[in-house]
Amino acid sequence: MSDWSLLRRTRTRTSLAVAAALAGLWACVGGASGAPAATAAVPTPDHVVVVIFENHAYGQVIGNSSAPYINSLKSGGANLTQSYAETHPSQPNYFALFSGSTQGITDDSCYDPGFTDAPNLASELSAVGASWASYNESLPSQGSTECSSGDYAQKHNPWFGFSNVPTSTAQTFDQFPTDFTTLPNVSFVVPNLCSDMHDCSVATGDTWLRDNLGAYATWAQTHNSLLVITFDEDNRLSGNRIPTVFSGQPVRAGSSSSTTYNHYNLLRTLEDMYGTSHAGQAGSAADITGIWIP
Q1: 41-284: which CATH architecture?
Q2: How many angstroms separate the Cα of 49 from the Cα of each of 176, 228, 289?
Q3: 162: which DSSP letter?
Q4: Which of 60, 83, 90, 88 shows the shortest CA–CA distance to 190?
Q5: SS3 228
Q6: Fewest beta carbons within 10 Å, which of 87, 134, 174, 268?
Q7: Which DSSP helix (H) or strand (E) runs through 242?
């Protein structure tokens, strides 16, 4: 081997070693901004809106002609065919989705606001500099911790149970912005007891979604954003199998997944999109995969 060849190989090995070291340093600091890097298996949308409906099984919504809008989002987005809630009744499922734990809640009774400081999606997002809010239809006023008011029910709003989540982040649905660029990174939308299909029909909830979030769903397709539609629980007749649909620019259109997922998988996915820590049982859950544009 010539002296030049030996020198060139030595330089190549040295350059590769330096590049690897720099890549490791970059990963440790989370890039130039210092923000935690998201898990490679999931995208990092600019905005995610999660809408939670009530008490319907997969087969009551998916393929149902009374839910044409949700089914159109499914066809143009992604469908989880084996998505499951955690338990019954409603309220523990909301806590599970928000914090990776039912937090000892076993019924739909009103709870004392701020009864726990356990980690949750909102506190985790705040810790990494990401933004959070909830938009709650029929909530009497921003930050109101009332048990119930008309078609509003506290049992569908777990964020009030956490002392590390500012009550001001719970807004009325009237405060949902028309300029979608001003949305937080992650927001939950909770329709009231009629709009969420609890007291009213599937068709009522489907129409509410189209009329109130259809513009966002369309905008999300071209603005690196995501709409997630899921349910708290089924009708107690289908093993707690629920509809869960994803729509938006990061989603592979027409995709589906038959992997078994639950509320903890959805929480883990939202956490990993923004590089947060993991709350409760989300720590041992897998990300939702197989539906994203590579």
Answers
A1: 3-Layer(aba) Sandwich (3.40)
A2: 11, 6, 18
A3: B
A4: 90
A5: strand
A6: 174
A7: strand 241-242
Q: Which amino acid is at 43?
A: P
pLDDT the model gives residue 96: 98
CB-based contact 249:222 (threshold 8 Å): yes
Sign of CA dihedral 43, 44, 49, 52: positive
Residue type, 100: G
Least confident of 15-19, 43-47, 140-144: 15-19
Within 10 Å of residue 17's Cβ, how many Cβ atoms?
10
Q: Which of 155, 169, 116 is nearest to 279 (CA)?
A: 116
Residue 109 carries which DSSP code?
Answer: -
103-118: burial string, b at 16+ Cβ within 10 Å, e else: bebeeeeebebeebeb
Domain boundaries, the chain: 1-34, 41-284
How far, CA to CA in Å, does 285 sit from each of 176, 267, 282? 31, 9, 5
Distance CA(2)–CA(4), nearest Å, equals 5
DSSP 135: E
Q: Is the pTM of this model over 0.85?
A: yes
**Which pLDDT does position 34 carry in this prediction?**
36
List C-alpha distances in Å: 173 to 44, 86, 125. 25, 26, 21
Q: Is 219 exposed, middle or buried (0-12, 13-18, 19+ CB in 10 A)?
A: middle
Q: How confident is the model at residue 25 (pLDDT cuts 50, 70, 90)?
A: very low
Is 70 exceeded by the pLDDT of residue 206?
yes
Is the pLDDT confidence value at 192 over 60? Answer: yes
Closest by CA to 75, choosing from 256, 225, 231, 244, is 256
Token output for 47? 């905005």
Note whether 43 and 292 are within 8 A (CB). Answer: yes
